[in-house]
């Protein structure tokens, strides 16, 4: 389906975020569509984390608006955003190494069995559900929900966190550098899972430095440079070299400009 026939589930309009005088985001507008992967590209400090924190209810924008499903919305907290269907998965899967797969899958929403004083965590149901959801995303190596999260590979941890978000009905899945710490094989695995989430109609926001990973799964791309959206394009509209040049060149030029400003300030102080 093309963009024109779909409505964005999440929309940022002219969003800026200022921290104690520092402008981390400057007039950013962005549309996030169901069943699409939006890649957020940018060098260190470009504002990617700040942007996803606005999208996930962690930061309120200093100016500009957020629309959720066509309605202007102020998320009260990350919990509020999460309850509406925005799930964020951080680089290491955001799970607890000493918990079992089954327990970590249901953390905060533990299934129980029995009544009254006999009420207890339904370990069998939790383990079976977690393993089934992971298997459905193609993680067939995991068959035992009792295994500790800490014993999983980085890719498997990501997969379990994504499976959890899918199971609990995420409409928007924000993945913050999910492949950054992974080897080639593991990264490929995670990219495959991202495609599966997209095919389920979930809007995926993929934050990454890695242009190759972005180009493999992305439908739409936004490049941030120093808090501003420097470019915004659909799959096929830019070459890999153009994107790489934009990310590297833009940042280098911005750094040079900042250096020159500092130098000019110092020279002015001397005179
Ligand atoms: N709470 C805060 N208070 C002050 N400045 C902040 C705060 N959060 C972020 N910044 C600044 O805003 C700028 C953008 O930061 P942000 O973390 O969004 O960048 P990023 O693109 O995610 O970088 P990276 O890829 O390194 O994680 C940085 O210069 C950062 O120091």
How are the SSEs placed, and which strands pair?
Blueprint: E1 10-19, E2 22-32, E3 37-42, H1 48-55, E4 63-68, E5 71-73, H2 78-84, E6 86-89, H3 101-105, E7 112-113, E8 120-121, H4 123-136, H5 154-167, E9 172-176, H6 184-199, E10 203-208, H7 211-217, E11 220-225, E12 228-234, H8 240-270
Parallel strand pairs: 3-10, 3-11, 6-9, 9-10
Antiparallel strand pairs: 1-2, 1-4, 4-5, 7-8, 11-12
Helix pairs in contact: 4-5, 5-6
The chain binds adenosine-5'-triphosphate.
Organism: Rhodoluna lacicola
EC number: 3.6.3.17
Keywords: ATP-binding, Hydrolase, Nucleotide-binding, Sugar transport, Transport
Describe this structure in words.
It is a single chain. The chain is of the alpha/beta class. The protein has one domain (3-97, 172-270): Rossmann fold (3-Layer(aba) Sandwich). 38% of the residues lie in helices and 25% in strands. It has helices at 48-55, 78-84, 101-105, 123-136, 154-167, 184-199, 211-217, 240-270; strands at residues 10-19, 22-32, 37-42, 63-68, 71-73, 86-89, 112-113, 120-121, 172-176, 203-208, 220-225, 228-234. The strands form 3 sheets. The chain has a 6-stranded mixed beta sheet, sandwiched between helices. The chain has a 4-stranded antiparallel beta sheet with strand order 2-1-4-5, with helices on one face. The protein has a two-stranded antiparallel ribbon with strand order 7-8. A hairpin with a 2-residue loop joins strand 4 (63-68) and strand 5 (71-73). Helix 4 (123-136) crosses helix 5 and helix 5 packs parallel to helix 6 (184-199). The chain is globular and about 80 Å long. The model has no long low-confidence stretch (mean pLDDT 87). The structure holds adenosine-5'-triphosphate. Adenosine-5'-triphosphate is lined by residues 19, 22, 24, 42, 44-50. Its EC number is 3.6.3.17. One of its GO terms (molecular function) is ATP binding.
